[in-house]
Design brief:
Number of strands: 0
Radius of gyration: 26 Å
Distance between the termini: 84 Å
Helix content: 55-70%
Number of helices: 6
Strand content: under 5%
Structural class: mainly alpha
Shape: rod-shaped
């Protein structure tokens, strides 16, 4: 069963890098089989589980959807979707603002000490 698990994760377009989780989805992927059976019914899940076909072909034959499409839909429903774009994190914005304020204060103090001769 562990091999099946890794195949399901490996065959999807969803990726995640985080050392604190044992898999790409943390503990959420422990319920993937249950969610497959709930969504498609016990007969179709049983046909997939007992199939002698290669993994991707068995999944497609039993559920009429590829593993990548199903996992993407599952991930969006479970984890939500995030638009990938270059955005600063909240801590980076706060740190940058503090840095600008600090340098502004230093420049103001420096300029205040200057005297015209």
């Amino acid at each position: 069963m562990a091999v099946w698990y890794s195949n399901l994760i490996d065959e999807t377009p969803v990726t995640w890098v985080n050392d604190s989780y044992t898999t790409a989805f943390g503990n959420l992927d422990a319920y993937i089989l249950d969610q497959l059976e709930t969504e498609f019914g016990p007969q179709r899940f049983g046909a997939f589980w007992r199939s002698e076909l290669p993994f991707e072909q068995a999944f497609l034959a039993a559920f009429d959807v590829s593993t990548g499409e199903w996992m993407q839909t599952w991930a969006q429903g479970t984890l939500g979707s995030y638009q990938a774009r270059p955005v600063l994190t909240q801590s980076a914005r706060f740190g940058g603002l503090l840095t600008i304020m600090l340098f502004g204060l230093i420049a103001g103090m420096w300029n205040r000490r200057r005297k015209v001769a």
